[in-house]
Write a structure and sequence with these properties.
Length: about 200
């Protein structure tokens, strides 16, 4: 059965996945955003509220999952993070399958998957795009975020496949250390290459 070519977009914290995914979307490519799906499912009445509250008492409230509180419970505790992932990731996988069915006639779709290499998902996609910028650019961007500390940043980095390894494993690398307009030009060029490759 014909299905869209699945392009995975990944990259480490602050490398620009969301920004580049928005560029693909702006160019008409359907985008599945794993992180946005997690946020949706963690909102009030979302499917993940009950199981997360049961596993992490006090981590939800009237506003849904309190992500700062939950982050404090899981970042720094490998066992707790694994328990959270076991709740969240199957729900995301289901939503991704539904998305694929919904866009069954598109030639290309983009899956924005922050933990693609960490979870071995690269086997199930047709091409992998990695967003990457110099480490000092990444650091500056991430430390500018509210609530981020050098320790938290270092810890999250330690959980993620190193950028150099991601670049090596990528089919295509998008440089996000450039001015936005240059990255956007590179994205448009890449879409043309992908359309040709998967036509
Ligand atoms: C723990 C939560 C509530 C913290 O939310 P918060 O808004 O504070 O942080 P945010 O989601 O922006 O994550 C910050 C950085 O940590 C990274 N990160 C998030 N979860 C993980 C993880 N399981 N392993 C490694 N890195 C992670 C993100 O890619 C990002 O670079 C949230 O990250 C979450 O629900 N994580 C579990 C689901 C998950 O694995 N999501 C990532 C892929 S879908
Ligand atoms: N050329 C560029 N490409 C992408 N992002 C850029 C570029 N120049 C500056 N930026 C800025 O860098 C930031 C990248 O953040 P973004 O949320 O896209 O990263 P992310 O990889 O999705 O992060 P996280 O893994 O933490 O969710 C944005 O504020 C964006 O405007």
């Amino acid at each position: 059965m014909k299905r869209p070519a699945i392009i995975a977009l990944t990259g480490s914290i602050g490398m620009g996945k969301s920004t580049v995914a928005a560029m693909f979307e702006g160019a008409g490519i359907p985008v599945f955003d794993a992180d946005a799906e997690v946020r949706r499912l963690q909102q009030p009445r979302g499917d993940l509220i009950e199981p997360i509250e049961a596993a992490f008492p006090g981590s939800t409230g009237p506003g849904g999952v309190d992500r700062d509180a939950l982050g404090q419970m899981v970042f720094g505790d490998k066992e707790a993070l694994a328990r959270l992932e076991a709740i969240v990731h199957p729900a995301v996988a289901r939503a991704r399958q539904e998305f694929l069915i919904e866009h069954g006639n598109a030639p290309l779709v983009l899956f924005d998957i922050p933990l693609l290499f960490e979870k071995g998902g690269q086997e199930n996609v047709d091409a992998v795009v990695v967003v990457s910028a110099p480490a000092e650019v990444q650091r500056r961007r991430v430390l500018a975020r509210p609530g981020m500390t050098p320790d938290k940043f270092a810890h999250i980095l330690s959980l993620q496949t190193p950028d150099t390894e991601k670049r090596e494993k990528a089919d295509y690398v998008i440089d996000t250390g450039l001015p936005l307009s240059e990255t956007e030009d590179a994205v448009i060029e890449l879409i043309a290459v992908l359309q040709k490759r998967f036509s």
